[in-house]
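Repro:
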Amino acid sequence: AADVVAVKLPNDQTKYFKYTYTKPEGRKVYNTRQDALSGDVDADFVNINSMPNYAGAIYNTQSAVIDNITGNFINNCAEWQAGAINNLGIIGNITGDFVNNYVKGVKSAQGGAVYNRGTIGDITGSFINNSAQITSSGAYGGAVMNSGTTGEISGDFINNAAQTSSASSASGGAVYNGGTIKNIVNSSFIGNFASSNEKAQGGAVYSSKNLNMTAADGVVFFSGNYSKDKRGKIYNALYATDTSTIAFDSTGDGTWVINDNLQGGNYVFHGDDVIDADTGTTTQYVAINNDIVNAGTVTVENTTLRFGAYQHEDQTAKNWDGKGAFVAALNEDGSANRDADAV
């Protein structure tokens, strides 16, 4: 059907996402931007065009407080910041999906669905086909741009994009984190990308701060995410700055499968399994099927790194034929420099 996005997962299963909105009988729906909400909000926000202003659906000012929001955000748009929610104040928990929201920037493009510079509680819902787009400057956070404080985020990130056709940078196809996110839980990142004529980083996630990601139940994927710039296309899950530490938690019954490379930063892979005295391994594991590039430190605690292989469909990408390995640097064309010395 025309209103369904079909995403092929790396385990050969297909997941379907319905995104065309049909108003449920009796459901409250906003079709214009809301600037003065308070208390609990139970409504959907659909087809709101707030251009040339920022904040597509909700603008929550620095002194404003919204308790909890229950609702879906579909087909909303704005200029510069926040295709759906621009939060400078306080919002409690948000429960709902964010689909087809976007910003088309002039000064910058930040947060295709959510721009947070204040405080948000937990976000439970998927982010699908959101984008931050611009032709003349940088693009940051195709779905979420966070420079404030956010609680746990739980939901899949599918086909989000940070795009600029200028010589500026694009960072975080799905998530740009320059603040505090308590945890990202059971969230697969599939098919997200950052693209720029000059420099793109973080096909799915860009983080300049510490970040914890948890696979609490089942298999959680990073797959098909990429950056694309003057070097060409590189399958890239995450880019972290030198001072940030990214933790992948497989405690309990969760498993990470990472088919795109990890770049920069410091990494902690940890679980709660018991190390087998004979093999030195655990039953819990993190599958690394592409390079870990220029990591400052890598720590493994009570889980196992399994270096494997995965072939992406697009053979024009520099690292389509992925194999788990530590690499000190990339060449100027974006290919892995396997002869570079660690620094």
